[in-house]
Amino acid sequence: MKKLINNPNNVVEEMIDGYVKAHPTYIKRLEENDRSLVTARKTTDNKVGILIGGGSGHEPGFLGYVGDGMADGVAVGNIFASPPPAPILEVTKAIDKGAGVVYLYGNYAGDVMNFGMAADLADMEDIHVEMVLTTDDVASAPIEEKEKRRGIAGEFFVFKTAGAAADQGYNLGEVARIARKTNEFTRSMGVGLTPCSLPQTGEPSFEIGDNEMELGLGHHGEPGIKKVPMDKADNIADELLKHIFADMPLNKDDEVAVLVNGLGSTPRLELYIMYRRVEQVLKEKGIHIYRSYVGDYITSLEMGGCSITLTKVDDELKKLIDHPVDCPMFVQK
Amino acid sequence: MKKLINNPNNVVEEMIDGYVKAHPTYIKRLEENDRSLVTARKTTDNKVGILIGGGSGHEPGFLGYVGDGMADGVAVGNIFASPPPAPILEVTKAIDKGAGVVYLYGNYAGDVMNFGMAADLADMEDIHVEMVLTTDDVASAPIEEKEKRRGIAGEFFVFKTAGAAADQGYNLGEVARIARKTNEFTRSMGVGLTPCSLPQTGEPSFEIGDNEMELGLGHHGEPGIKKVPMDKADNIADELLKHIFADMPLNKDDEVAVLVNGLGSTPRLELYIMYRRVEQVLKEKGIHIYRSYVGDYITSLEMGGCSITLTKVDDELKKLIDHPVDCPMFVQK
After folding, report:
1. N or C end: fewer C-beta atoms under 10 angstroms in chain A?
2. Which domains does chain B have, with CATH numbers?
3. What interface predicted TM-score (ipTM) does this complex get?
4. Residue B191: what pLDDT?
5. Does B81 lie at the interface with A, CB-CB under 8 angstroms?
6. Which of A:40-69 have CB within 8 Å of B?
């Protein structure tokens, strides 16, 4: 796989370097760890800090979501690997204003361990931390074991509502409650068409035939539910939605926020064709779409495919979904 | 190439259908032509209309740039093909408020013919039209034949400044002057790593070896300057910038807006590594970066590679670059 890189061992450092230089009014590096970044904007006093993080290669996730109305800081890991506790702790200390910090991250073993350790260290410095895991991927474990599920693109809605809540002055417990509620009301499922390759190894992230796709693929290439022959976009959307509806029953007149997320190399044209079908199916069921997002929100380098996310929204979540955002990779008026 | 589509002959209709359903508060279809779209927002009285257009497959170009502060309407063509005169004329009539309409499009034979014919037809209906071609691709013809050059990602800056000027109340001649000035001060050059394939034919858009890249590739796969072996990102950036500087000399303390544009399947991580080098080189030359854009702004389906665009900015252009924008695929506060 051809890549626009220099030394494969330096891709994360060089990306961060370019990112900070491109957006100096938005984000800055902290001093101890090269991969600890915080907003360059002045935030409100007593605001609860929002800390996000995880592996690189998911851009705009995660550093792209540091900015007004979303996260205050990010700890950046290697490609598809969790950041260690040190940068997480450094960001925690930098963004805590006495009101505590909420950690938002996907449910992966490395992240669970490292964010947990960082929270323990923060506790020793009397910083209150709440941890919220996202577990939106319905394909990754049965509903009875929801706590084992991976976080995929639905993380975007957790960042969005929790970030808005913190910006609107909610306290630590309330911001964490919003994040958990959003996760509880969020379901995603993806389909993988073509793998990406890691810069250091050049190995494909998963194996797939020329006329196959993998339903329920995880966003590091983790196995999904099954490999099936390629199909039409409408049928793929129907299949993904079927799994989502089975997992989170929605009733007529329920309202949802929708995300059709590209995994990296899928053209917007295709994502909108997928969205078209999602809208048709929801309409047939009498489910109202409150707000839609279509594009690359949480990617896997140049992986091909997409995921569909539905978040059931009530009045409280709607107000937070509508809250303005100003980040380098995502702006909402 | 696997694609998330239904019938390959319907991809443009279905994309537009999904797009309008996803963003109903931003954009709407006109009645006569399925591919005539205009802003759903109320615009100022006597505002000069901004009409953009061209082939599909370049999303966010072009329909993604209809919205506040950019274009008022778009005529959408087939994949990589110009829209015919009829939808262009229909959009023209819909967005003309008596102050005239500016057509902004890339310098391609089909577009030149169809937008020209639409302008003639508009003239018969007493609508004043100014046409501005973008010709930013330095690799497509020598400077002596600048009028033969293709428009590539630099179109984004032409849309940005002309859209802002119209929004700020500039008259028809002034908006056209701004668009031409921006084009005059804009240079781009791209590099192609991997082709895309057209939904209807499945054929790759250009041929390239496993360890090769094409310098100066056009955004429909038109031949560039030469095929060369893959190289490091820094060397590629240096090479692209060398051609740009040779074409548009920049002096110490000049200011530029920078766009590092992905062609479709190139991860943001790589685009920021490219940006990192662009910033280094400009800094060494004492050229100041006024504002930066890094991401997928004008794509070629799932083509791999990127382009670099520099626009020399003065006080007038800076004010327009800074003007806020609210479009479904591009928001700037």
Report:
1. C
2. 8-185 (3.40.50.10440), 187-321 (3.30.1180.20)
3. 0.98
4. 98
5. no
6. 56-57, 59-60, 64
